[in-house]
Amino acid sequence: MREGDELVFHEVEDPNEKYDMTRDEHGQRKAEWYLCPKERQQICIVNPYLYEIKPGHRELMTSLTFPLVVGSRFIGIVGMDINLAVLQVAAEAIVKRLFHGKGDVMLVSHGGLIAAASRFPDRLGRRLRDVAPDLAATLGMSGTSASGELWLHHLPIEIAGTTWTLSVMVPRAEILAAAHALDGSLRRIQRAGMQNALCCGRGLR
């Protein structure tokens, strides 16, 4: 597992857990990280899940795994667990620089689970449709759209044969304020240019 800039290896207590077919509340098998590349024999990424790193401490993770195939025989996997807390920190840092801290950034997995979100820091790992149905309804609309008083831009990100979505949300009032400010600046530049032209014109007479 990557923790910061280091790769940390954690021993698996029960080797049979890689065959665990039990499904979590979102329908994902507990051993999806192993079963997916084994069954599909291709790179896989799983939906966010909570993993107990040490007793009493769980982190939201995802796993990116590759099958190891010799000839046509599957012999195992290689991959990495990614601590999504890093993405949450990045999302919150971006928001501080986005429209005076009034915008939001969110990353949603292919299964519709919130992987990182400045707006919903206490709902990570939940289905977006359960947290914000109106926003969830716009996810399939790549590009720019609107939901209520929000301006939205959804960017599809292709990862391991799946599509995650990076969303930027800004209140319409902020967009309009920025547009009005730009319009005002352009008008001032235009007036200054006209005044300079008039002054130069008088000087040439």
Write a compact overview of the structure shown:
The chain is of the alpha+beta class. 30% of the residues lie in helices and 35% in strands. The longest helix is centred in the last third of the chain and has 32 residues, at 172-203.
Structural description of this entry:
The chain is an alpha+beta fold and 205 residues long. The protein is built from 5 helices and 11 strands. The protein has helices at residues 32-40, 85-96, 128-131, 133-136, 172-203, and strands spanning 2-3, 6-7, 44-45, 49-54, 57-70, 73-83, 104-108, 114-117, 143-147, 150-159, 162-171. The strands form 3 sheets. It has a 5-stranded antiparallel β-sheet. Strands 3, 4, 5 and 6 form a 4-stranded antiparallel β-sheet that branches. The radius of gyration is 24 Å and the shape is elongated. The model is unreliable at 177-185 (pLDDT under 50).
Features:
single chain, 205 residues, alpha+beta, five-stranded antiparallel beta sheet, four-stranded antiparallel beta sheet, 5 helices, 11 strands, elongated
Q: What does the main sheet amount to?
A: 5 strands, antiparallel
How do the helices and strands follow one another from N- to C-terminus? EEHEEEEHEEHHEEEH
- Rounded Rg: 24 Å
Helicity, in percent? 25-40%
**Which class do the helix and strand fractions yield?**
alpha+beta
Number of helices in the DSSP assignment: 5
* Structural shape: elongated
Which band does the percent of strand residues land in? Answer: 25-35%
Distance separating the two termini: 78 Å
Quick one: how many beta strands? 11
- Which stretches of 5+ consecutive residues score pLDDT under 50? 177-185
Average pLDDT, all residues: 80
Strands of the widest sheet, in order across it, are 8-7-11-10-9
